[in-house]
Amino acid sequence: MEKLLTIKDAAKLFNVHPNTIYKGIINRDIPACKLPGIGIRLISKEIKEWASGHSTKRNQISNILPKLDITLDSYDKLFLERRTEMNGVVRYKYPFGSVLMRKTNNKEERYYIHYQVDGQRVRKALKGVRTRAEAVKVLNAEVSDAQRGKYHFQKRKITFKEMADLFLEKYSEPNKRSWKSTDRVYTRNMKPFFGEIKLAKITPLMIEDYKIERLSNGKGRRPGERVSNSTINRELQCLRKMFNKAIDWGFATQNPVNKVDFLPEDENPRKRMLSLDEEARFAAVAPSYLLHIVLVAAYTGMRREKVLTLRWEHVDFDKKEVEVVKSKSGKDRIMEMHDNVFNLLTMLRLKNGQSEYVFVNPRTGKPYTDIRRSFKTACKKAGITGLHFHDLRHTFGSRLAWVTDLNTVKESMGHAKLTTTQRYLHSNAERKREAVNSMAGHVYDFGLQWQNSDKRATSNDEADAITPS
């Protein structure tokens, strides 16, 4: 059964004077019914539908009232709550704002309007307005426009640094597993530039200046390396998300990053991989613990963090599977074990099976935390240049693409999109030579054949020279 509202209930619902609702009923603008012995009642569903159809909002009186074609006295009778006088200023307070009148030394009346929108207080002097009726019309119109979002008001003042800390605490850390290596790093890079600037004061031009500053003085991850365009773009993406959250949380009304162009990025992603020859050279010089870690990475495609923190409970020797828990995409996936990985893990299980982790540092009894230095040293001894640990993941994907279809590579790599997997379709020079040499056909000795053909051609030329015509 639909709920019936009294006139007072409806007035309270829309925060208006009861006479406003009553006048709307008389003018047949508001649906109502008269029940015998009870009085006028309004059906909750119908009045809400009517309000929705008329775009009625809280304190937006202009859509309920006739367009101020009534006298000011009648308007005051319906809406004026009280009138106060202080220091010669008369305040006329209405549900949607106030009109103030002050007399100048020349006894002229000057009018002002005060109202609030989304917690933002607005005070405005009215030029050219000579009567209170005109001031009320201006006030009513401005509040209506402000409620429709015509004016952009900063809801709360907050600095960039404060918003960045709040963004990490309330959004990044609860929702992103990689927040420490992504959003925390990006905001740390942006804080020296934007720091104590109010969020509302950040403009697209300032963001352009930030791009220029990063391109000029930004440092990459490695010593002597310059920051890349892709890194700056990731920072801008973080800034854009931060402003979107600021809008949702009431700290901003618009996103200036939407008006900024991102930098061009290299369309050819990194394609470095570990060749079979380099793998053999690396195995000859690397310490055993490092070789074990590298082999697991190269033959499973697992990221460094996942390899170093691999637990025995995620290794299934019966099914020859390794479970990757909470990968970068946030989902678990199952990796089939290559024979090299199976044999290696079987050996390690017999050696240190009492530990919780597969790869354990004997000095600490805990997993290895950083192998950058030892990996770099081993590569140098093996004569391998330009190889990063993450290239081992690319090695796995590329080798897998040689022997299977793209969807299988996508599932094995844990990619969300097939376009990401397509980067692994290329082959290196070694693989191309193997493919070309494996083509069926005869092998010719082109050097000997060329000599024999040349001798026959010479003999024929000499014979033609001595043959009579």
Keywords:
single chain, 469 residues, alpha+beta, DNA polymerase, domain 1, five-stranded antiparallel beta sheet, 47% helix, elongated
What does this structure look like?
- This protein is an alpha+beta fold.
- The protein folds into 4 domains: 4-56; 76-147, no CATH class; 160-259, Orthogonal Bundle (DNA polymerase, domain 1); 276-432, Orthogonal Bundle (hpI Integrase, Chain A).
- It is 47% helix and 12% strand.
- It contains 19 helices and 11 strands.
- It has helices spanning 7-14, 18-26, 44-53, 72-79, 132-147, 160-175, 183-194, 204-217, 229-248, 276-285, 288-300, 304-308, 339-352, 372-381, 391-403, 406-413, 418-421, 429-437, 446-466, and strands spanning 4-5, 33-35, 39-43, 82-86, 89-94, 97-103, 109-117, 120-126, 315-316, 321-324, 333-336.
- The strands form 3 sheets. It has a 5-stranded antiparallel sheet with strand order 4-5-6-7-8, covered by helices on one side.
- A hairpin with a 2-residue loop joins β5 and β6 (97-103).
- α7 crosses α9.
- The radius of gyration is 38 Å and the shape is elongated.
- 21% of the residues are buried.
